[in-house]
Amino acid sequence: MADGDCLFCRIAAGELPAKVVYSDDEVMAFRDVAPRAPIHVLVIPRRHLVSVMDLRDEDTPLLGRIFAVIREVARQESIAQSGFRVVSNAGRDGGQTVDHLHFHVFGGRFMTWPPG
Ligand code: 5GP
Ligand code: ZN
Q1: Does the predicted model carry a pTM greater than 0.90?
Q2: Beta bridge partners of 20
Q3: From the CB of 18, is ligand 1 less than 6 Å away?
Q4: Minimal CB count within 10 Å: which of 61, 67, 103, 114?
Q5: Is residue 75 within 8 Å of residue 89, measured between CB atoms?
Q6: Which domain holds residue 66?
């Protein structure tokens, strides 16, 4: 898929608005437009990758940065102590609806288990 056709590439490029909570040269975090919890932030690589299945060994530093941002978001949103959930849906059975790798960060309420 060309970058211009991808929703999250367009958000990363600043072509579509988003409530950005973190941004650097490789990683962005913004609030989900339809929050499923009091805190619901999406953390994405700026580079277009469809899902975790697109990650390669050389992307290990990128994943490290993504998880550093997840920790930073958890601190900023005051859910680091109370706890939170990180989810990356992949493919049809995973319930992925936007085909640009993203990590949901849910918090601010107790998360039930198992997921639906
Ligand atoms: P998925 O279902 O692929 O795991 O997650 C996609 C998420 O993107 C959903 O939670 C959905 O609410 C969110 N989303 C879809 N379109 C937009 C948008 O234009 N802006 C923002 N901020 N979130 C979006
Ligand atoms: Zn994309």
Answers
A1: yes
A2: 30
A3: yes
A4: 114
A5: no
A6: 7-107
Domain count, the chain: 1
Residue having the nearest C-alpha atom to atom 12 of ligand 1: 34
Ranges of beta strands (E only) in the chain are 20-23, 27-31, 39-45, 84-87, 103-107
CATH number for the domain harbouring residue 18: 3.30.428.10
Q: Which atom of ligand 1 is nearest to the CA of 87?
A: 4
User: Which residues carry out catalysis?
Assistant: 102
Rounded Cα–Cα distance for residues 73 and 66 (Å): 10
In-domain check, residue 115: no
Neighbours of ion ligand 2 (CB under 5 A): 6, 8-9, 48, 100
Separation between Cα atoms, residue 96 and residue 108, nearest integer Å: 23
The answer to the question of residue 1 being in a domain is: no
- Using the predicted structure, report yes or no on whether residue 2 has a pLDDT greater than 60: no
Summary mean pLDDT of the chain: 96
